[in-house]
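Treating backbone geometry as a discrete language has practical consequences that deserve illustration. The sequence in question and its structure tokens are set out directly beneath this paragraph.
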Amino acid sequence: MDQVKIGRFIQSSRKQINITQKELADKLGVSDKLISKWETGNGMPDISILNELCSILNVSVNELLSGEILTPEKYSEKAEENIMELLKSNNTSKKAYIVQLIAGIIFFISAVLLMAVTTYGADPRIVSSYIDLPSLVIIIGLIFACVLISGVKRAKDVFSTIRKFSIPVGAMTMIFEMIGLFNGASTLDVLCPTLAIAVIPLLYSIGIFVIALLVEIKLTKND
């Protein structure tokens, strides 16, 4: 599909019904910046609002996806082309998600194995000298796995997913490490610092949560 052609068609259809980008955005519940992106060919309307957009612009979905007003003779032909394009795009998206899902599972398993090795295979007397970096790698690996498995693609959705999973991942990692370090500690002077170290993953996750939230807010304003 020609995004530039579709964008120009959205713009011309909007002007024909004499409404501004802001008015169209308000009707759809989106920002006028997003309307501008569509009209310049830098994005496509989400399928969830496609029918509503077409209803407002007084055009059919087939015409919108074709980027032109269709005559009865061309309507069926364009409908078939658009359906084939959508099916092709859907198949490509499914294949991409399968690859993404496999990568996410690999990241998740790798992060869990690293967590097991650094926690249960470590000597509690020296764990404080190297647990920080592995903890950060574990947290990032688990959160990245969640993003991949969730299948999100847009930047805003990526950071939203990071925000949602960061604290639960940090808490889970902290509990896992606390149990492992507690079982491996033989004396109180070793137990106290190692349990304190186990809190670090939660602190990392809180930091990641804050960063993801700030980026998400900025991206929301830019939509």
About this structure: The first helix runs from residue 3 to 16. DSSP finds ten helices and no strands in the chain.
